[in-house]
Write a structure and sequence with these properties.
With about 130 residues, this protein is mostly helical. The chain has one domain (about 1-100). Helix content is about 85%, strand content about 0%. The chain is built from four helices and no strands. It has helices at about 1-30, 35-65, 70-95, 110-130.
Length: about 130
């Protein structure tokens, strides 16, 4: 039974390490900030979670205790990394960082242009009202 857990723990740590290395290559090789944000959040989160879960299983099986720190680390990474990546990509989009010139199309551009136009018109009206 211990050999099954040893193999499972080893595979989890190995899989997490491979995914993390591939994510690092994605950060280097991908062409724009949006694709890099995807590599930095999705695959790195999966890699780190596999490594943390493998170490969590190691402590349960070999030392016989449940590590609250590892559980909190798993929860923290699972909750914060995708949200942080989303907010970084959203900030890049709102500051007009250009998309990759490949096959990527911006479906939100017409909607946001309309919002910017409406906001500009509202600012003009509010400035005119203050002048009176």
């Amino acid at each position: 039974m211990m050999t099954i857990f040893s193999i499972l723990i080893g595979l989890l740590v190995l899989f997490g390490s491979i995914i993390s290395v591939l994510s690092a290559f994605g950060l280097i090789r991908l062409p724009d900030v949006y694709l890099r944000a995807h590599a930095a959040t999705k695959s790195t989160t999966l890699g780190v979670l596999c490594i943390l879960f493998g170490s969590f299983l190691f402590f349960i099986v070999y030392d016989g205790y449940i590590s609250a720190r590892l559980l909190l680390g798993i929860l923290f990474v699972f909750m914060t990394a995708p949200v942080a990546g989303h907010l970084n990509a959203r900030a890049a989009y709102r500051t007009d960082v250009p998309l990759w010139k490949g096959t990527v199309q911006d479906a939100l551009a017409p909607v946001l242009r309309g919002k910017k136009r409406i906001l500009a018109e509202e600012e003009e009206v509010s400035v005119d009202e203050k002048d009176e």
